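re: that chain from earlier
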Amino acid sequence: MNIWRAAADLARAGTRGAIATVARVRGSTPVPAGTKMLVGAEGRLVGTVGGGCVEADVIGAALDAQAQRRPALVTHRLNADLAGDLGLSCGGTVDIFVEPLVADDAYVRVLEAAAGAESGLVRTAVAWEGGRPVKTFEPLPQGGASRAAATLTRDGRFMEERLTQAPRVFVFGAGHVGAAIAQAAAAAGFRVTIIDDRAEYADPSRFAGGIGVVAAEVDAALARFPLTEADAVVIATRGHRNDALILERVTTSPAGYVGLLGSRRKKVVVTKGLTAGGVPAKSLQRVRVPVGLAIGAVTPEEIAVSVVAELIAWRRTGD
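^ sequence. v structure.
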């Protein structure tokens, strides 16, 4: 769920709530700067800032911020021993900025802009005079980190968040395995589109909200969604012929990740045919076949876990 959108909806409706954002970290901490949690009138709604005592205290601060209509900066210092005692696998210092949602048009417009932005800079004042929020949004060129990052300005007066959207994952093939991969990738925070040329499989009612579903041939789909180096492609169609057709189109694209469901023998067969058809061998070498980590996965759900684990490694480490 898009926390910015959920927060905007609550604020627009005048419903009580607060956003908690990890504004700065030092040392080993449960989550990185930029991580967000949305808190409602009765507690956490969406997201987490690390669990344990940290989260409990932040929820309490969020409830206070709602009641007082005033933001707060919460600091937690955990040495390794204390962190272990409290169930956290880390030690360090984390500053978390808690801001109440307010039904102010300018404030809500910033939340809505952040919710739909490909990239941008959100700047929020740490102290609000008279309870009036100071929050701005500035569009920025696309590129950079793959997740939101936050920091406090040197003078401590503002929290700045540089936003970029999560990588896109295009899953070709909406059968049992493709559908499971799409669901798992969406749960892991990727922006997912699943594509199949069979309308009965590319049926939005089969998928949770937030997953794009497209009934189209590969050429039409790629014309609609030009691939970039920040995109991943997973091919899980119903047969070698469809796989080969899609590989022919995507291996020479800028896509940063291309994976093919199947065995090593399938890789040999498909690669041989495409090489004979003129596809450069160098382009084919980057295709991950079998796709996913080698964990002995058998069921669609297990295969989805192995594939998404590999996608996470690509996203976070570039490997």
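Residues 168-317 form a domain with the Rossmann fold fold (CATH 3.40.50.720).
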